[in-house]
Amino acid sequence: NNIYMDEMQSAIDSFFVKATANDDLRVIRYASTVIDDSTLLDDVFYGYSDQRAMLCALDSIIGESDSKFIRAYVLSDFINNTPYEGAVSLTSESLLTIRQHLLSYSSSGKDIRTTMLILPPSTSPNGYSLEAIRTIMPENMYHQYAVTSADSLAAFFSRDIEVTDRQLGRIVDEKDDSTSTGLIISIIVLVLMLGGIVWMVYRSK
Questions:
Q1: How many angstroms from the chain centroid is the CA of residue 64?
Q2: For residue range 44-59, what is the model confidence (pLDDT) as tens digits?
Q3: Is residue 150 predicted with pLDDT exceeding 50?
Q4: Which of 6, 85, 95, 150 could link 136 by a cystine bridge, Cβ 3.0 to 4.6 Å?
């Protein structure tokens, strides 16, 4: 039900175009559950935001990926609100299994960075669960960014793509943007919470 979601479409579209130039990109929507296709679902689906389902999907995607470099972006207001429990905050203790999985993926050699893109409200309404999510994420994998507008989201994506390109050796210096052929392509995962808003962000290539 986040009123700020609609205006983010242009930033998401721009990110999709830039990210797919060099990387594999999966766009996954979650609300009352998680889906990995472009099907428009009904208002019942969009009326909720199951943060535990999002974390379990993220865990599964990272674990199953063959890529060494994984960048995950979660765009949400981080209010946990499920059809069964209502708006109830997650506890960090209930998410420890996910933390253990992420640590094992890191120890196996995967370079993982997750960024929580925080839509307002950033206070603590019923169900607000960002703190529990931050607590269970390994410190070296966790980043967060407060999204104040579509422009701020677009600027963040632009900077982060450049940082990733530099890390992978695609940008050697300011005058050389050549692509290194010996690098493993990263998978960038964009997880979108669309609670209450029926719109399409998945574009098949």
A1: 16
A2: 777 889 999 999 999 9
A3: yes
A4: 95
Six-digit token pair at 172?
């050697």
CA distances from 80 to 4, 31, 91, 122, 137 (A): 17, 9, 11, 13, 17
Q: What is the pTM of this model?
A: 0.79
Instruction: Name the 3-class secondary structure at 68.
Output: coil
Contact 41, 190 (CB under 8 A): no
Cα angle, residue 84 at apex, residues 79 and 85 outer, rounded to 5°: 50
Q: Which two tokens stand for residue 154?
A: 């677009």
Write down the H helix ranges in 20-125. Answer: 43-46, 51-64, 96-107
The single-letter code of the amino acid at 47 is G
Query: Which among 119, 111, 116 is positioned nearest to 164, based on CA atoms?
Result: 111
Is the Cβ–Cβ distance between 30 and 48 less than 8 Å?
A: no
